[in-house]
Amino acid sequence: MFMIRENLNIQHSFYHVRIFQHALLLNMRDIRRRIGKSRVLPHSVRHRYPRAQEPSPSANYGIKSTCYCEPFSVVSGPVAKAKSPSKPSEMSQSTARALQRVKGSCSPSLWRGPPHGYTRRSFSATCSRRLMDTSGFSDTQLTVREAVSQLCSNFPNTYWQERDQTEQDPQDFHAALAKDGWLGIALPESLGGSGLGISEAVMMMQTITESGAGMAGAQAIHANVYATQPLAKFGTEKQLQSTIPNIIQGKWRVCFGVTEPNSGLDTLRLTTTATKQPDGSYRVSGQKIWITCAQVASKMILLARTAPLDPKKPSQGLSLFCIDLNRDQQGLDLRKIRKMGGKAVDANEVFFDNYSIPADSLIGDEGQGFKIILHGMNAERCLLAGEALGLGYAALNKAAEYARDRTVFQRPIGQNQAIAHPLADAYMKLEAAKLMTYHAARLYDDSSKEGSSPDAKISPASVGVACNSAKYMAAEAAFTACERAVLTHGGMGYAAEYDVERWFRECLVPRIAPVSREMILNYISEKVLALPRSY
């Protein structure tokens, strides 16, 4: 409808877009007068949408970054009221300090105008923070989003481009999250965690991928969040005190050893064995594949068979272990897999050949590992759904920015419905997936609470259905958004500097792992529709 001239400054561009959004309330002639003639913005508009603070420079690169899930510290509405929980018991001290710093930036005084030292963000940055509808989120979730967003702003897209090209692990990013206590976001406070839920962890993971880090940033800490859930719930006191604090503090990294080359999704048919020895220790033999972060991990949550397979009870005889990955010990071999996307984070084949592990590595009871591991699988699906959402929102924002700025035939390409409508469709898919994702996360958290009345108890089946549905919907929505972002950029979508090609390569991960789309459809068909099992 209107074109923004090149010489119009970025701040005015932002204000004009806000006027466009109120087009149904304002007279169209008045809009033309404001933009086309006077170029004078009303006082109420200037102070309703004050300037935002520029992201801090990266310590490594010394440049200012554009974070595509900008902090909410200076916008009006429910976000401006975001505050850390009033009870100290709700989170660890380190996380509380991080949230308190953010809370300080949410002062109502910012509503009166930009304070001294504040600078304008880019047009795309100010618009992107409103791309996802944040209504319905708790104050804690919004504060988590803001704090993690501020942290991620120190790691711009150029940082992740370099890590992708050199395949270097983002250890400094992992360390930054550990320093502020984010690695223990969903772990009990008694173990040094924050005592928050998967709902807040999903928000954290979404914010990381949405910042431009993509799946590489999320996968760097993914296992630290979900793989520790079974350990925290079923581990012995010795395991908890010796392992969890070191993981939260970033001293140790953890990986998840379940998938095998010959069983794949048929987890009950895995062949890696853990044979008990007379002294109580175990000897592990077998192969695992697609084990993320095994090259840098100190610990592995390992699922292995401790009893022969019983066709009538295939879930029996599987046991879960928390083992050390000692590269100097005989019987362990790690081989890195070359892959399509997320190259900053390694994926591996892991070979065990009579690898010795102590008796106290066992988590829970012997033979009950599959039941225990289900506790972490639903959490993983929720987290992966959040990661996919962030990836989709980042790509969609980038596409919308390009469609606004790219001019062909003397008008922005976003004015063409062939460009605008697919992006609008992608947005609606992301919003629908977002609702399902946070619904599933709330179900998971509520079902994990102890002491709930039997009448209000949530069945494990309903949690599984919700978590699998969320993972499916978010993965599909992210793929749609990333694909259309590349197509919107045209030839430039193939260029690494625009990031959308990196996100497109990475958006395939949520569709494939840790469970395929087809298996989720099988699960819904059987558990919800009561159709005969097809596998």
UniProtKB/TrEMBL annotation:
Q: Locate the Acyl-CoA oxidase/dehydrogenase middle domain: which residues?
A: 255-354
Q: Which cofactor does it need?
A: FAD
Q: Which GO molecular-function terms appear in the entry? A: acyl-CoA dehydrogenase activity; flavin adenine dinucleotide binding
- Residue stretches making up the Acyl-CoA dehydrogenase/oxidase C-terminal domain: 367-528
Question: Does the UniProt entry include the keyword Oxidoreductase?
Answer: yes
Q: Which residues form the Acyl-CoA dehydrogenase/oxidase N-terminal domain?
A: 138-251
Domain of life where this protein originates: Eukaryota
Matching entries from Gene3D superfamilies are given as: Acyl-CoA dehydrogenase/oxidase, N-terminal domain, Butyryl-CoA Dehydrogenase, subunit A, domain 2, Butyryl-CoA Dehydrogenase, subunit A, domain 3
Q: Which UniProt keywords apply?
A: FAD, Flavoprotein, Oxidoreductase
Known CDD domains for this protein? ACAD
Carries keyword Plastid? no
Q: Which family does it belong to?
A: Belongs to the acyl-CoA dehydrogenase family.
Q: Which protein, by its recorded name, is this?
A: Related to isovaleryl-CoA dehydrogenase
Q: What is the lineage of its organism?
A: Eukaryota, Fungi, Dikarya, Ascomycota, Pezizomycotina
